[in-house]
Amino acid sequence: MRTDRLLARLEQEPERPSNPAPRMSGTRKVLFAATGVVYALIVAAVLLTTELVRWDWQLMLLRPYKQWPEFHAFLDYFVVLGQRGPTAVLVAAWLGWRSWRQRTLRPLLVLASALLVLNVSVGAVKIGLGRLGPHYATQVGSAELFAGGDIFPSGHTANAVVTWGILAYLATTPRARRVLSVVAAVFALGVGATTVYLGTHWLSDVLLGWVAGLIILLGLPWCEPSIARVEAKIYAYRERLRPVGRARPFPVPVTPVTGPPAVARAGHGDGQHTGAHAEPTGAGRAASVRGHTTGRAHPARGDRPSATRTATLGPRGR
Fold first, then answer.
1. Which residues belong to any copy of the Phosphatidic acid phosphatase type 2/haloperoxidase domain (predicted)?
2. What is the rounded distance in angstroms from the CA atom of residue 185 to the CA atom of residue 188?
């Protein structure tokens, strides 16, 4: 890519993009419903202490962080890609630049809406089920529910799905959407698997976290009308706060100035002529001279005003 093309992409666009917001299509509704069914099945499997809970205990007793300790240092840093604070700051910085460049608040409002729904939905289930983590389990084979915990579903995993998936959701080209979808999937799958490796989550926690994040991404088009209304209100409020002097300029009609001609305003004896007062030539000049000569007699020398008085009084004093 040439340097000028790269710099052109960093500049602010002249107007807002015309790409319409995604709508809740029939395919998306089917996927949303199917994902909701999977969500309910996972919760039921844990509540009923089914085979899924036995797999949870098998992986926990395997202790992967002890089986493969060489990956521990790297994965301790990699799991940060699922923490809500650092990832929200990174993605918000990127989307803030996009909002400035595209002259729209929609990217930031979509991120804020998704994180709000994520915190409310995932947090409510965490507190309601109260499941303890693997490091705090008290009875082998138990689901460890309603014990004051807060790890089911996995917040790291759900946050990774939503935060990185927002980039693919807001992509403006099919190619960018495919690339960002792969990146988001790698981060989401990697963060979920890392929490199981480190022993901070059960396998069922991670499965439910993946599904919870996917449900939020699939349901985001339902939030688009509210996002558009909030954006319009923010811009309207900004216009009300804008000072009067900095208001957007509008054309003012110019009123033509009418008045007496320059010759009428000037004195007869001041000896000055304007560009619009043309000197007559030919027959017209001779007629003018005759009219001037016969009209009135020239005053005698004694009757004429002195040069000193004329210079003192000026054209108005006369």
1. 108-221
2. 5
